[in-house]
Write a structure and sequence with these properties.
Blueprint (H helix, E strand, L loop, with lengths): L1 E9 L10 E10 L2 E2 L4 E7 L5 E6 L4 E9 L6 E6 L9 E2 L2 E3 L2 E9 L7 E5 L16 E3 L4 E9 L2 E9 L6 E8 L2 E8 L2
Parallel strand pairs: 1-8, 1-9, 10-16
Antiparallel strand pairs: 1-5, 2-3, 2-4, 2-6, 6-7, 10-13, 11-12, 11-14, 14-15
Length: about 190
């Protein structure tokens, strides 16, 4: 029997996350050929301390897949080499998950004399659906602009704001992002 135990924690504050569905699946070798899909072999739900334990019979596999799901958090999927989890061994596998959040940024440039550039510092590492960090968002003078995008919750994201027609002054600051909907508003004076 293979037993895998671990804990699921929130990625930024490392606090345990309870009631997370943990699913283990296998990709098998069948009749000498590689399988193109995965078959679920064990599931569990984390307790209040974020702990889980799954067990399954050893088999000929190519690799294992572990998935976590919980409302309010991003879906997580990782792949584990077949040599990592072995029978009669202590198999520990800890997982960090991220809170799902949305950041709405509103820049009121109705009083600005030129274009305004807004840029977020690096954040939400590994998130393919999140705000771009290397992009300058351009707000035209005389406009009030809003954009929204996904970010990981429970983090602080730095930003830079630059008014193109000013004396080169820029403003930097931080946005505290919590789980769920978050709004940042800045009015150019």
């Amino acid at each position: 029997m293979i037993v895998v135990e671990g804990a699921v924690t929130e990625a930024y504050d490392m606090q345990p996350v309870g009631s997370v569905e943990v699913e283990i699946a296998k990709s098998v070798i069948s009749n000498g050929a590689f399988s193109s899909g995965f078959e679920v072999i064990s599931t569990d739900e984390t307790n209040e301390a974020g702990e889980f334990s799954v067990e399954f019979e050893p088999q000929s596999v190519i690799e294992y897949r572990i998935r976590t799901r919980k409302d309010g958090f991003y879906f997580k999927e990782e792949f584990v080499d077949r040599e990592v989890w072995l029978p009669k061994e202590e198999n520990v596998y800890d997982i960090q998950i991220n809170q799902a959040s949305t950041l709405s940024v509103q820049i009121d440039a109705t009083s600005a004399s030129g274009r305004v550039l807004f840029k977020l510092d690096p954040h939400s590492e590994g998130c393919i659906d999140c705000c771009k960090t290397a992009t300058n968002y351009v707000v035209n003078a005389g406009s009030d602009t809003m954009f929204s995008c996904n970010v990981y919750g429970n983090q602080i994201i730095g930003y830079q704001l630059f008014e193109a027609s000013s004396d080169g002054d820029s403003l930097t600051g931080q946005i505290e992002v919590k789980q769920g909907e978050n709004t940042f508003y800045h009015k150019i004076q």
